[in-house]
Amino acid sequence: MSQLTVHLEPGIEDDVVLLTVPADVGYLGVLRTATAGLAARLHFALDEIEDLRIAVDEACAMLLAIASRGAELECRFSVTDDALSVEVAVNTVRGARLPAESSFAWKVLTALTTSATAKVEDQRASIRLLTRRTP
Question: What is the pTM of this model?
Fold first, then answer.
């Protein structure tokens, strides 16, 4: 049975939105839509919103490739006055590795965002994207 969970964590300096969806390509549209909505809230330009949607989609695709069976994709959006941070994480199969930073996928992420970082430890992988709004 599929489940979509949304949590709001109000912060002092920023807003945090947590989305948890099954680790399945069919749910990526939910994350792309949430990304676009939050970026629009920050008054990002349309091309910046589309770049961020593509980056989130690419990050999720990288994680889905190494996700364990029945895993959930957790997406944490942190909204500040001038930036949107998106961290996507998933439980992985044993020995999972993300593509090298020299790969095409990483070139896409770094070209479309202000910064992109990743880590894999204890059968859990995460990718963090930060995009600052252009003044």
Answer: 0.86
